[in-house]
Amino acid sequence: QLQVVESGGGLVQPGGSLRLSCTAAGFYLDNYAIGWFRQAPGKEREGVSCIGGSVIKTFYADSVKGRFTISRDIAKNTVYLQMNSLQPEDTAVYYCAADRAGVPGWEWGVRNGYLEVWGQGTLVTVSS
Q1: What is the pLDDT of residues 81-101, one digit of tens each?
Q2: Most exposed: 32, 43, 49, 118, by fewest CB within 10 Å?
Q3: Exposed/middle/buried for 41, CB within 10 Å: 0-12, 13-18, 19+?
Q4: Are 81 and 19 in contact (CB under 8 A)?
Q5: In whole angstroms, what is the distance from residue 15 CA to residue 84 CA?
Q6: Residues 86 and 15: beta-carbon distance below 8 Å
Q7: Does the pLDDT value for residue 54 go beyond 90?
């Protein structure tokens, strides 16, 4: 059974940092594209960042470029999202999700609501 488990959300002040973690079970990261999408109340689902491929490819939404960094530890089967310079507009539930279709397939999956596996989500609140 494919499964991902997220951790690391919480409350942070504007300008602060958080690191999200996502550990995969039942599959190996080197065969999948894996990353994060987010959804805020009343807003559309947004792909935030993704990493994947034997030749590593990454994706970042324009809204997070230069502030967020995605990385993966193959030995731990875990992906991380380091989020710096957080702003109130980053407030959302962040979901870890994976798909074997690669980074472009992952992006498509987020836009169209189809991904092979995703987690329960972790809430990130940026507020003073």
Answers
A1: 999 999 999 999 999 999 998
A2: 43
A3: exposed
A4: yes
A5: 7
A6: yes
A7: no
